[in-house]
Amino acid sequence: MSRKDQQFSDHEQLKAENEYLKLKLMLENGARFEGSPSTDGELPPELENQFLKNMIEFERRWEEHKTIRVFDKIGKPSHFRKVMEIPDNEINQAWDELIFYLQQYNISLDVCSPNISKRELYRFATEELFELETDDMNMPGWITGFIYDEFYPDQVYENTRAATEYCILRLLDKQPLESMYHFRHENIRLNDYYPLTPEEIKKHVNSFKAAYDDLAEPDIQDIDCIINEKISRVTGTYKVKAVIGKDIHELSGKWQVGLGQDEKSGYWYIDQINIEGIKF
Fold it and tell me: What helix, strand, coil percent values describe the chain, rounded to 5?
């Protein structure tokens, strides 16, 4: 048999093995295979074979569902100092060394809020994260990720972001309002309109947007957030240039976004919006 014929035979055998592995995953794990991610419509059999074997290995380990303490997973290190023993001028380096060490064991620790110090992150990692139980998975490309905010939410930061990025900025730009994930499902106030559903708010807001040929990127300033138990208010000012034909109008004023905390889930949802100078 020539080398070309041998390569062709190996290629066909690998494709046959892939079909068997797919069938195994479909029957045992309910997997579905619809098309291929490659640009020419067919994934190279070598890559597909490795992908399928990784899937089977993942399913096997997941069924075992073994857990392990993070401290044990990273080799029970003893060289990390207690947070109170680290001087301020050394905490940045200590944090960087800790993160690098965790990465060697495919563990990541991230934070969303910019208000959390590296000293607090180091404290959380060494005093709390190390003691957590996690899935005992060790596979190529598998990362065990933790987010500090899920343990200690910075609600001022989260509510401010919801009010600005997911509300005011989206209400005042030219793009149609679509996603309203952060809004309450009913009884929402928009200026003088109440009670409204998210769909009704979309109609008011998109009607406002349609009246202009363009709305420049809004400029929002003087942002402040107050939380009083289960009620939160985020306030600020805005300026936006609205274009009609050759005319440019500047819309400006104060704005306020109210949020309420859901008793069951603990999530905060937008339930009130007031924007001066806008007739929705």
Answer: 40, 25, 30
Which of 135, 151, 167 is the last residue in one of the domains?
151
Interatomic CA distance for residues 261 and 263, integer angstroms: 6
Q: Do residues 164 and 175 make contact, with C-beta atoms less than 8 angstroms apart? A: no
Coil/strand/helix, residue 96 = helix
Helix (H/G/I), strand (E/B), else coil: 68: strand
- Sequence-distant (6+) residues with CB within 8 A of 261 are 230, 231, 232, 267, 268
Domain membership flag for residue 35 = no
pTM: 0.72
Structure tokens, 125:
């990692």
Q: Any idea which of 26-35, 103-112, 118-127, 141-150 has the lowest mean pLDDT?
A: 26-35
The model's pLDDT over 204-255, given as tens digits with 9 standing for 90+, comes to 999 999 999 999 999 999 999 999 999 999 999 999 999 999 999 999 999 9
